[in-house]
Structures are given as C-alpha cells and as structure tokens.
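Input sequence (260 aa), recorded before submission:
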Amino acid sequence: MRLKKTVFNDLVIASVAVLFCVRLCHPGVVPGAVAESSSEPVGAENPAEADSPVAAEAEASAAGALDFSYRHPIRGVHSYADCFPDLQEVQYPSARQHGVRPVRNRVEAEHRKKELLCVAFNPYYEMDAAMSHSIPYLVPRASALLEHISRRFLDSLAVKGIPLHTLIVTSVLRSEADVARLRRTNGNASEQSCHRFGTTFDISYNRYHTVSPPGEPARRAVRSDSLKYILCEVLRDARAEGRCWVKYEVKQGCFHITVR
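Predicted structure, token format:
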C-alpha cells in the first residue's frame, strides 16, 4: 500500500512538472480553453458562416435594422407571356365581383365617393400627367393592391441597391363616356373594359419617376430595363399570392392589373 502511494505521488509530481514546462515554453496555452470552446455550438466560429450575407442580414434584423450592405441580385422573370398571361376572360369576372356599377360619366363619379377612393395623391406612386381617358378612383380593395405593389417595388429597389423610383400609373377608372371616347381613337380598347368597375389599373413598365430628396442634386437615372425586371418580380409574387391578375401589354407599354 505504501509503495502504491509513493508511485501515485511520483506520477502527480511528474505531471505537474510537465505542465509547468509546457506553460513556460508556450505561454499562450490556457488550461481549460478546449473545454470552454467545446461548449459553443458547432460551426459558430466558421468564418464562412459569419461573413455570409444571410448571417449578416439575420444579425442586423435581430438588432432592429436591416443591413443593405449585401445587395440582392436582379433576376426578373423567365417570360412575360408565361408569367403574366391573364386575358380579359380571366380578369373580367373578378372586376364584376369586386367592382362597382359602371359610372356613366365623370360627374356621376364625383357622387360615388362612398364606393370609390381617390388615388390621385400617394407618396408611393405617381399618376401619369398625360392620363386623359380615366379618372383617379378605385374601389378600396384595388387601392390597397396598388399601394401594396408600389411599396414592395420601393423595398426591392432598396435591397438591390438601386436609387429610388416610383411607379407611374397610366390608367385607372374609366366611365362609360371615357370608354366610348377611347374606342374612337384606339381600336383595341374593349367596350367591356375592366376599368369601368374601379378594380383595374395600368402601370407603365418603361417609364418611372426618379425620387430626389429636396435640396439635393438629382439622382442618377437608372435604365428602364433594370426597373422593369424588378417590377416583374414584384408583380409575379403578388400574382402568385392570389392578390391580382396581370396581363403584359406589349403595345401599350404597361401591365394591366385587376384585383382578385
């Protein structure tokens, strides 16, 4: 028994001596460092994960602010015809379901304000100054859709690092008189236009309004193609969510949109 105690004591003394020598030769080695590091989640110190855009954005979101240092790519859609195929036959039933009784003329429209909302002034989009065959009224459901699309467009520009531009609305509610007048100059205009119900609006895809803060130099212009691709992404998502029908109008240079 005494021999065993002696051997044990010799081993302990030898171990302490070895550790002391290691500490002298390598001062950076801290006892217990391995044990502490093992308590961290696996991969927490992975440089690739720490520097990834997803991790950076998640960290910024947790802090209460979105980090725009990572710019999302502009992808667009694979085909305008495939992604926005909704013809009159599809849009018209929704217009009839959610819309108002067609307005005879603009005077009558002024007396239908309990059913229609004025959408002429909104910070998220612009009304086309040249709009002459429609008046800026929509049913509440369509008004909310227009603002939703416009705000998502601005959000997309921000996360992609593109200077802010607002959408230009080229057509909204058309009275029966507006439809008749338009058909005299545009043979493609439908007599049963969805615009008559206040559920439908057109957004230009080749013209946008550049936003420049007051007192600051005008911001650089962005190619309309780039903005069009971003708008396509927003409309594709809104359509996929079941919010609207969308038709890509080639000759008119706009997206024809009806609320669902």
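Checked by second reader. Residues 2-62 form one domain.
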